[in-house]
Amino acid sequence: MRKLFIAALMAVLSFSQSYAAKKVQKDLFPDGTEIPEWFRNTAAVDLQALGKQYKLTDHRIFADGRVHTAEIQALIDKAAANGGGVIVVPQGIYMTGGLVFKQGTHLYLEDGAVLMGSDFIGDYPLGTTRIEGETCTYFGALINADGLDGFTISGKGTIDGNGLRYHQSFWLRRKWNRQCTNKDEQRPRLVYISNCKNVQIEGVKLQNSAFWTTHIYNSENVKLLGLRIYSLGTPNDSKGPSTDAIDLDVVKNVLVKNCYMSVNDDAVAIKGGKGPYADAFKKNYDGVEIPKESIGNGANSNIIIEDCEYGFCHGCLTLGSESVHSRNIILRRINISSQANNLLWLKMRPDTPQLYEYITVEDIKGPVKNFILVAPWTQFYDLKGRKDKPMSYSDHITMRNCDVDCNTFFNVKQQEEVYHLSNFNFENITVRAKNKDFHPEYVENFTYKNINF
Fold first, then answer.
1. How confident is the model at residue 147 (pLDDT cuts 50, 70, 90)?
2. What is the per-residue pLDDT for 175?
């Protein structure tokens, strides 16, 4: 009896020690630093804590098919002047052009509410903004927030970019000018957050954007929770060009969690700048005048995308094509329900010095065309007179615990004169690939184990 008691006690102690070890196991970024508690706090926005509620219909703004930009903007300005508050969109479809939120103001969309963007570009004022890796004059978004602390968008309603007309115009322009850029066909983004901190966007549907859907620039401590982001079009409509779900552009501390993304471009794209001196923010080029368009370039760090579902997209996680330095990025626990083009896509611009480091992709299930794609990106290549070509690097890239069907497993182009790859790690990967070619020799120090075709 005594032996049985001792054995049972030892079993309990062993279990307790094992449980304690798991409990204290730290969640780490790829570079080994601990992930702060901030990333685990996903408390919902409390509508009652946002201040006075300004409901559109209480201020004679109705779902009557007219564009109410001036009236809604006046309501935002009134709330800001009175110490802040929340603009409440009730059930119905309310039309507007570009809106600019002020410090202390918020946006809440009730269930059944739709804030619908105008399909006339003149309803979106021009101003200095950040777009496609450059600081320039361009059109504002449908929802704009600049220099705010604590801005929120929440509710169960929808922000709809009404993008079909813009999409059709873009494809028509492309028919006669294959070199036209995204900016040539004038289109507004859906949501543009710039120079902000402590931002939370949760629960709403973001759909049918004319251009990029959610663009976060030069901001920190941003949470995107429980969003449904969609912009594809139907088989009888024009698919939305460059309707990235989420563009992260010079950011620090970003959490994307429990979102659904299906768009006709990248789901999550990491940006930050482009051009032959794009990394001038951290280097001193003796005797070189930094081009004006490089002002505003910068690095991205500490980004987690987790527990999301993906429909179709060009890239589940894409670094580039306008990106300079990105570090500590995690894509994990992702289910892909409709074949995406690329799971991890590293766009290496031969006219831009780039450093992508400490990137982890793990616990992924679903179909993709390319498990990993690394290749030069030469769209609108321009050295702007620089004589030597800048080098780029991808370092400490980890992909593990994935179960995928794909066309090509290792679609990596070797171009040492353009970029250098090092310290890749593939582990516990089950892949059903049509093209099983694997070239670890393309990468300096490539470790891999348990890759099952």
1. very high
2. 87
Each residue of 376-394: pLDDT tens digit? 988 777 777 888 889 999 9
pLDDT on residue 234: 60
User: Distance between CA atoms of 404 and 89, rounded to whole angstroms?
Assistant: 41
Question: What residues are paired with 147 via a beta bridge?
Answer: none
- C-alpha 237/C-alpha 170 separation (Å) is 13
pLDDT for residue 284: 45
- How far apart CA 348 and CA 320 sit, in angstroms, is 7
Mean pLDDT of the chain: 91
